[in-house]
Amino acid sequence: xxxxxxxxxxxxxxxxxxxxxxxxxxxxxxxxxxxxxxxxxxxxxxxxxxxxxxxxxxxxxxxxxxxxxxxxxxxxxx
Length: 78
Known about the structure:
CATH topology: Rossmann fold
Number of domains: 1
Low-confidence stretches: none
Mean pLDDT: 88
Structural class: mainly alpha
Distance between the termini: 41 Å
CATH class: Alpha Beta
């Protein structure tokens, strides 16, 4: 696990310029990399995008992200 965490942090810094994860990011990233189906619910600005972008960089294949855009837009207005 330590080696995997080191690789994650190296990739995070190399591609995004960050040296650490925000609270709540590392666990879903680890789950995605382990092949687990993952649902992430975080507030706007909570760092959701990195939770799929980083695994997408580290794995081959297609990454499918489902985002409830209408609900998100409504939430921003309310």
